[in-house]
Amino acid sequence: MNILLVDDNVYTIRALKSGIDYAALGIDGIYTARNMKQAAEWLNREEIPLVLTDIEMPNGTGLQLLEWINEHRPGTVTLFCTSFANFDYAKKAVELHSFDYYLKPIQYEDLQKLLEKAVEEVKKRERAREKERYEEYWNDNLNIYKSHFWEDVLFWVDSYDEEELEFLAESRHLPYLREDLFTAGILRFEKEKSRMSDFSGNLERFVAGNIMAELCEHGGVRTEMFLKCRRDTWALVFSHGKEMRQEQMDEVFQMLIKNLERVLACSVSVCYACGCTFENIRGRYMLLEDYCRAHGPGESCAVDIDRFRKPDPVSGENGGVQNTEKAVRNVRQYIDEHFCENITRDTLGEIVYLSPGYLAASFKKLTGCSLGSYIIEKRVERAKELLSEGSLTVSEVAFAVGYDNFTYFSRMFKTRTGMMPKEYKKLRRQRD
Asked: CA–CA separation, 184 vs 88, rounded Å?
């Protein structure tokens, strides 16, 4: 940390330099100036968060210097050290937000204590600035973090179980809670027939994003994700309060369709599932995908997926109970061999020629657990083996079983085993 000493009296400067234990204060750079001009030059040239200055000086008083500091170097901690017990000076110093006002003659012990407080104030302000910078960066990138979160929630089955999505959100510092409600949707239009036919991906996202922002201002919903999945298909997630009724959500989507039609000059269709929780949003999104596979984009409409009867997961698709049981066995075998890899729902569906939604529902009905939960159990068992061997660090074990989110892996492991990975590793080594 640096300090600037400002006084027109050279003997006072020498006394301030020699009489204070700056090293004990954590100050290693001591700069001096004889007037306001020199002080401003130092402050423009160096990173100096702490200034100790006289008030009565030629060519610019200490009060004028503080005015300059407030304008050009805000956040600098400034103390006055003066021989004048002048009420007007003290009042002006308070108005200019000086840190303190010390009267000469200098008593080094007292001034040392005052500078200790000033150094703490410097640290406090730096922490506040750092927090402000972090919050600004976080807010600027919050939509990106949310989009990545919902991609993992909706499109991957290998890492996160529905029951654990709340603390996955917590591990990523996202403001989602178990009781929050969401609406998932799939929006479609034929790009070749729209005004976006020649748009680049960035321009397309910009236009669509502006429409979504306008919608949220009036529709009582917040856009958590709006992501292009394929050329003609977008996935979206809205959050909203518990008072949001299905009829109101239908109006929101009708408004969205109307606005998009006006911009795109083509038909737009949306299918959606209203009032989803963390525990059911993935399954309901897969039903949306199943519906979209069975119904191509047609005339403009908003379709509530809950109005359609859902097929019996073990009798409605691809040949009945026997074929479905065989498909589930094949999927389990594939997971047993590949559980440490990234596994998408589409990959599993393609292996057994079933739609992802139908496969997920069938798997849970026939095995008693979700695809995500089954994969996690396999990963935990492998992690326990690697931790027992003791040759890998916990972070290396997490990566080896398919996790790059160390915080989530640790909490998930504790949820499943009752202890943190480090504790488990230490216990197993003690037993061996």
From this structure: 65
Q: Please provide the DSSP assignment of 371-419 as one string.
A: HHHHHHHHHHHHHHHHHHH--S-HHHHHHHTT---HHHHHHHHHHHHSS
Contact 240, 221 (CB under 8 A): yes
Integer Cα distance of 256 and 189 in angstroms: 13
What value does the CA radius of gyration of the chain take, rounded to a whole number of Å?
Answer: 32
Q: Looking up tokens 């969205």, which residue turns up?
A: 256
How many residues are given for the chain?
A: 432
Residue-by-residue pLDDT tens, the chain, 432 positions: 999 999 988 888 898 888 889 899 999 999 999 899 999 999 999 899 999 988 888 888 888 888 898 888 988 998 888 876 666 766 777 777 787 877 778 788 888 888 999 999 999 888 888 887 777 766 667 878 888 888 888 876 555 666 678 878 887 888 888 888 999 999 888 777 777 766 666 676 777 677 777 766 666 788 888 888 777 788 999 988 888 888 888 888 888 888 888 877 788 888 999 988 888 888 788 888 888 877 776 677 888 887 765 554 554 555 556 688 888 899 999 999 988 887 777 788 788 888 777 788 788 889 888 888 888 889 999 999 999 988 889 999 999 998 877 888 888 888 889 899 999 888 877 665
State the Cα–Cα distance between residues 144 and 163, nearest whole angstrom.
Answer: 23
Strands 77-82 and 100-103: parallel
**Are 30 and 17 a contacting pair, CB within 8 Å?**
yes
Q: Does domain 2-128 have CATH number 3.40.50.2300?
A: yes
- Which among 5, 100, 94 is positioned nearest to 43, based on CA atoms? 5
pTM above 0.90, yes or no: no
Helix axes 62-72, 87-95, angle to 10 degrees: 0
Distance, in Å, from the CA atom of 176 to the CA atom of 165, rounded to the nearest integer, reads 9
What CATH number should be reported for the domain whose range is 156-307?
3.30.70.270
Beta bridge partner(s), residue 234: 187, 228
Residues sharing a CB contact under 8 Å with residue 172, sequence separation 6 or more, in sequence order: 145, 149, 405
Structurally, at CATH architecture level, domain 369-432 sits in Orthogonal Bundle (1.10)
Cα separation, 338 vs 239, whole angstroms: 34
Terminal CA-CA length for the chain: 51
Token pair, residue 418, equals 């009752």
From the list 4, 9, 3, the residue with the least C-alpha distance to 105 is: 9
